Amino acid sequence: MLWDVAPVAFTISIGSFHLPVYWYGLFFASTFVYGLFIFRYLFRREGRPEDEVYDLVLFVLAGTVIGARLGHVLFYNPGFYLSHPWKILAVWEGGLASHGAVVGILIAVWLYSRRATDQPFLWVCDRIGVTVPLSGCLIRIGNFFNSEILGRPTDVPWAVIFARVDALPRHPAQLYEALCYLLIFLIQFRFYLKHGNSAPLGHMFGRFFILVFGARFVLEFFKEGQAAFESGWTITMGQWLSIPVILVGVYLIWRARRLQQVFGVGWDAEPRRPDAPET
């Protein structure tokens, strides 16, 4: 398959002012649009005011953009940005890291939960863990349109030639990742519909960490290196960064199981408060 789609979807022109709108930007922005609708559904399903969703989405939007950009700056090209600090703000030139986005989202959710006293940090994170995999799916499709985050050369029948880069047939690694994240979203959403109100705090978020970053670790073997300093490494920077996230996911699952045992949190009923009397 030959892929030669221009990264610019269309251009907004007003007089002498021209603003190119990129496919990647459209897919990235769409993640927050659909996220708004899904979170409204989750809040409505749990009897919470839907208006609270708008504050949460704004916090997550800011945390995602700032965290993803700083993650790219610090993890993948620190030397360049230290010598060109004004380029740190040039998000439109590309360069966002999913691991940085996770850190940014966690900080944003923590700040949000401090304001929303009836929404504990891990309660919000559990719902984030349901919706974010679909965001990852759309963002990787945007990477495919941009002909970036390329797969390794291959001779498989479904290989893609990214004509804007070179003439080598490559693994469509972006689509592999997008498909994995879509499946993870469906798994998480189904789990939420069955257990969302009764699962111990942190369980769904731990599943999210393990599934998403476990998939990311495996799929890195199909990708070209993202930074020059990775040359000669046994595993990539993305894989190194995924390992601690997976371990945090394992801890969250273990912690949730402990809560279930100690405090009597069930899977098919509302959780019993720790101070509630035995029946």
Automatic annotation (TrEMBL):
The chain crosses the membrane at residues 21-43, 55-76, 88-112, 124-145, 175-193, 205-222, 234-254. It is found in: Cell membrane. Its EC number is 2.5.1.145. Its main location: membrane. It is a multi-pass membrane protein. It comes from the Bacteria. Pfam families: LGT (PF01790). It is an enzyme of class 2 (transferase). A 1,2-diacyl-sn-glycero-3-phospho-(1'-sn-glycerol) binds at residue 140. Pathway: Protein modification; lipoprotein biosynthesis (diacylglyceryl transfer). One of its GO terms (molecular function) is phosphatidylglycerol-prolipoprotein diacylglyceryl transferase activity. PROSITE patterns: LGT (PS01311). Keywords: Cell membrane, Membrane, Transferase, Transmembrane, Transmembrane helix. Catalyzes the transfer of the diacylglyceryl group from phosphatidylglycerol to the sulfhydryl group of the N-terminal cysteine of a prolipoprotein, the first step in the formation of mature lipoproteins. PANTHER family: PHOSPHATIDYLGLYCEROL--PROLIPOPROTEIN DIACYLGLYCERYL TRANSFERASE, PROLIPOPROTEIN DIACYLGLYCERYL TRANSFERASE. Belongs to the Lgt family. This is Phosphatidylglycerol--prolipoprotein diacylglyceryl transferase. It comes from Methylocaldum szegediense. The gene is lgt.
